[in-house]
Design brief:
single chain, alpha+beta, Double Stranded RNA Binding Domain, Ribosomal Protein S5, domain 2, five-stranded antiparallel β-sheet
Length: about 160
């Protein structure tokens, strides 16, 4: 499910979960929500919220996602180079793709790429398929990416395009 809020941010609910705690009087049910928020122009973040009610959990997750936004370097609709993100047992391989490929990715990775504004990418989730860990591994991967200009500046080199 994807919505656009009043600030023009794309909000996607990646995972909703009902958890229960057995107590003396019975079971206490609570809800967790995993939400991805992006502007479609290179900024994306995720949030995890817990509450007694589903809407409250979604609101908490969305607020956290807005606070945790990072910038994704996008060049012609894709990422600049291949990267492997790790978190726990989850690994996510992200590879740049040629124009017209589309987003070849599973649920959580697809949500992040769509919210960030990436149009062409290849990905593979390796190891754990837990949505929370896959999202965190993807965010680790894209946070390691740099624009070619930044890398050239760090190395003290001038960027030569087309050579």
């Amino acid at each position: 499910m994807s919505t656009v809020n009043e600030l023009g941010l794309i909000e996607k609910i990646v995972h909703l979960n009902r958890v229960s705690k057995v107590v003396k009087g019975g079971k206490n049910f609570k809800f967790t929500a995993l939400v991805v928020v992006g502007d479609g122009k290179g900024k994306v973040g995720y949030g995890y919220g817990k509450s007694n009610q589903v809407p409250d959990a979604i609101v908490k997750a969305t607020e956290r996602a807005k606070k945790n936004m990072i910038t994704v370097p996008i060049i012609e609709g894709t990422i600049p180079y291949e990267v492997l993100g790790n978190f726990g047992a989850a690994k996510v391989l992200l590879k740049p793709a040629v124009k017209g490929t589309g987003i070849i990715a599973g649920g959580p990775v697809r949500a992040i790429m769509e919210a960030a504004g990436v149009t062409d990418i290849l990905s593979k989730a390796i190891g754990s398929r837990n949505p929370v860990n896959v999202i965190k591994a993807t965010m680790m991967g894209i946070s390691m990416l740099r624009f070619p200009e930044e890398v050239g500046e760090i190395r003290g080199r001038e960027l030569k395009i087309g050579v």
